[in-house]
Design a protein that fits this description.
3 domains; Integrase; Phage_Integrase; hpI Integrase, Chain A; DNA-binding; DNA recombination
């Protein structure tokens, strides 16, 4: 006769273990210490003979009242099973035996598989992807910060192959709501790149970002467009009247007078400058393309830096961090200043280079000079070396005229 739940629940321990048989190989072993263990007896062929084995299914429990489906799943994963659940486990084990598979071996393999999938979480793959990038440490740190703030709390601990488009959509919507569309789009691009690595290393088969890639509304901000000459003048006047940190204002002016990248200006070091020769030599490790770049300095920049040297010359960086003077200021300070001035969303520091390129091309300067000034490196290394020397004098004249025009536009009324 099959077991009843009452028999299982009321079975008392004895001096020696004993069995309560349910049928089809399933029985409940009651041990002297009170533990009631589900066992499944089966036979598998071993060559010409059949070998009897016992599969430990789990322990008998009574399901708690009010148990949720999630709680029940956790309990079963802990191998604590009711009578009906033990019978279901027996049926699954029997189907394996029919296929010639030992249920104990199959469970061990499944455990190894689950452990492997747990080890390949999205966070693990993301950090591997980030380590492969040939980026500056500051760039990697910023991207990791975004991952930790926006993405990891949602899907970081999930196996990368278990992540669905619905999970991605939740990340994107939350990012757009809490951090804005630009951050959400950065998160989208980053996640897609991470899944590309996961697919290439056989840890995922599809990119769940792709189906929802157009779910976000388009970013309507125009902060990367080139500014008009009137807007340049107004921006420079607004910055002059900002009243913020002197180092931030000087770094911002240096960026405009040289068309350098925001982080290149913010993290500039005194050892890179030869003010007598009016040159700024940025080492390869600080450049996006990992190639040394020489910037000619207009007289306005030289005069500004000569005055600044009396203020920050004792530090390694031209623009030391406000709190930790041994470190450089962060380029995010530019954005903070622009937001205070009401320029946030209309202009970003990166648009400085777009503006400079547009205006200098309009003025008829050589495209080669402009591209060299912007450190848009050519592939031909011989030509690069030749052009650096050839164009430096031309670029110096161009950037002096650019700095003069900045002064002129700043003085003009809109």
């Amino acid at each position: 006769m099959p077991l009843t739940d009452t028999q299982c629940r009321t079975a008392k321990p004895k001096e020696k273990p004993y069995k309560l048989t349910d049928g089809n190989g399933l029985y409940l072993e009651v041990k002297p210490n009170g533990v009631k263990a589900w066992r499944y007896r089966f036979e598998l062929s071993d060559g010409n003979t059949r070998k009897e084995s016992v599969f430990a299914i789990g322990e008998y429990v009574v399901a708690p009242k009010g148990e949720t489906s999630e709680q029940a799943e956790d309990r079963r994963n802990g191998r604590l099973l009711t009578l009906s659940e033990a019978r279901e486990a027996r049926s699954k084990a029997r189907s394996l035996v029919v296929q010639g598979i030992n249920p104990a071996h199959h469970r061990q393999q499944e455990r190894v598989k689950r452990d492997h999938e747990k080890a390949t979480t999205f966070e693990a793959v993301a950090k591997e992807w980030l380590a492969l990038k040939d980026w500056e440490e500051t760039t990697k740190s910023k991207r990791l910060g975004m991952l930790k703030r926006v993405i990891f709390p949602k899907i970081g601990d999930m196996p990368v192959k278990a992540i669905t488009p619905a999970h991605i959509l939740d990340v994107l919507r939350s990012a757009a709501k809490d951090n804005g569309l630009s951050v959400a789009n950065e998160a989208k691009r980053t996640m897609s790149s991470i899944f590309e690595l996961a697919i290439a290393t056989l840890r995922a088969s599809t990119d769940p970002v792709h189906p929802v890639r157009k779910a976000l509304p388009k970013n309507k901000t125009q902060h990367k467009r080139a500014l008009s000459t009137d807007e340049i003048g107004q921006l420079l006047r607004d910055v002059d009247s900002h009243g913020g940190r002197h180092e931030t204002l000087c770094a911002f002016r240096l960026m405009w007078m040289t068309l350098s990248r925001p982080n290149e200006a913010a993290e500039a070091q005194w050892s890179e400058f030869d003010l007598e020769k009016a040159l700024w030599r940025i080492p390869a490790e600080r450049m996006k393309k990992r190639k040394e770049h020489i910037n000619p300095l207009p007289t306005q920049a030289v005069e500004m830096l000569q005055a600044l040297k009396g203020v920050t010359g004792k530090y390694a960086h031209l623009f030391p961090h406000r709190d930790v003077r041994t470190r450089p200021m962060v380029s995010a300070s530019f954005r903070q200043m622009l937001n205070v001035l009401g320029w946030g969303g209309k202009y970003s520091p990166h648009a400085t280079r777009t503006t400079g390129s547009t205006r200098l091309n309009e003025m008829g300067f050589s495209a080669d000079w402009i591209e060299m000034q912007l450190a848009h490196t050519e592939q031909n290394t011989v030509r690069v070396t030749y052009n650096h020397a050839k164009y430096l004098t031309d670029r110096a004249q161009m950037m002096q005229q650019w700095a003069d025009l900045l002064d002129q536009w700043k003085k003009e009324s809109t």
